[in-house]
Amino acid sequence: MATGFNVDFQFxxxxxxxxxxxxxxxxAQASTPDDPSPFGSVALDLRRSTATVDVAQATRAxxxxxxxxxxxxxGGTVTYTLRYGNTSGTTVDSMDAVDILPFDGDPRGxxxxxxxxxxxxxxxxxxxxxxxVSTVGPAALDLLDGVTDGFVDPASAxxxxxxxxxxxxxxxxxxxxxxxxxxxxxxxxxxxTALRIVGTGPGFLPSGSGPHPIGITFAVGANxxxxxxxxxxxxxxxxxxxxxxxxxxxxATVTGGATTPPIQPVDTTVPPTTVPEVVPVVGPAPVxxxxxxxxxxxxxxxxxxxxxxxxxxxxxxxxLTMAAARRRxxxxxxxxxxxxxxxxxx
Length: 346
Hints:
- The chain is mainly beta.
- The chain has one helix spanning 138-142; strands at residues 6-11, 22-29, 48-55, 62-68, 77-85, 92-100, 117-123, 130-134, 173-174, 194-205, 212-220, 229-232, 235-238, 245-246, 250-253, 310-315, 319-324.
- It has a domain at 62-253: Sandwich (Immunoglobulin-like).
- The strands form 5 sheets. Strands 9-8-10-6-13-14 form a 6-stranded antiparallel beta sheet. A 4-stranded antiparallel beta sheet has the order 4-5-11-7, with no helix packed on it. Strands 1-16-17 form a 3-stranded antiparallel beta sheet, with no helix packed on it.
């Protein structure tokens, strides 16, 4: 590398909702055989540099969701992990969340056939939340809050937040009771369409508590087709927060499954009719083939996206510099220091 020649390195970094508020430092250092001397202080050694990111304290609670594996095989399994916690300095006394399980044609982008995805179990966080089940049609649950988006605001569920008194007709059993005499209305996990996760205080989420992970496990059917997609998301309300908190769906797409032959477009244009010369013949009347009306419909679904940004510049011989973009947490509407963008109105 010639003297004075610079190389810029750029990378993306996602700031978790569970990142503590404060200043976070990223350090980089470069080495070369031409200078094997020990590193000195950042202030004096041009081979070292730092950049900082300030994370503001804007929320009293955080959630996220992930899925493993993101590319399951037919006959395999997928596990969605829901995490929640309290990153603030104030205790949160209650949480109420709803998770609509993936269903074919849902607005989050799920599409799969019967038997391709089956709920098999739940892995509690151990923090004391109670998980209830519903067998109401998922599309009907999605419409409870008046918006078709794959989310259910617990404030629109029955009974509504905060501190719902359960069981109810909409949420008749605890997950652990499905298939037992304590839950006669739900005999199998195959009937379950949604989960309601409830945690109550006082002091349910102390300051700095979490993240607390909950696992939801599914079996991928042996008949799952290549490209089958399972999208899952959840929305939660926390005591002390005006608006519900939600995150984009986590998505798994089957690979290695059976493929469906592509549908070839058909030309439906009717050719011009030619009147043939009439010749008397003896025998059956000729058969005239008429083209059939064939139509091809294509469907699609939007994909949620999010990203964070950071920049680092490195120069050997010319020094090392870094710069980092600042990013604030998703804010509260009632936080005087920030704007309310990023939260969904109740």
